[in-house]
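Now for a typical sample entry:
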Amino acid sequence: MPTANVNIVAVLVAALLTFVLGAFWYSPILFAKQWMAAQGYTPEKLQTMKQRGGARAYVVSIACYLVTAYVLALLVSYTNSTTLAQGLWLGFLSWLGFAATIGLTAHVFSEKPIAAWVIDAGYQLAYLVIMGALLSVWR
């Protein structure tokens, strides 16, 4: 296996930006109402969920974003991606080949409307292309 050069600072920044993007994506400014409706959540249900384990969900999320950013940085290094266009393409391919397909497969076995998958997949597409671009340019 080839050696990989991973910029840990870029990985940390990419994970943090993904977390911030998620806060914006799932906020009332963008898709909070649509996402809640697609998931079948009421404001009361969300409040109960926050009280039971909101902090845990955020810790798990940031850990997952760190892993995703690190693995994508490895792919950036292995493919020798160094330009914005290459990073955007690598992020898109990662979304198309993994996030979109795995998420859609799981979704078709749920009883939720397709809007739930579309909102989540849109977020995953946005953060993977942003991560890919950032990690490619900032090696």
Q: What stands out?
A: The longest helix spans residues 43-79. The helical segments are 8-25, 32-39, 43-79, 84-108, 114-137. The mean pLDDT is 94. The chain is about 80% helix and 0% strand.
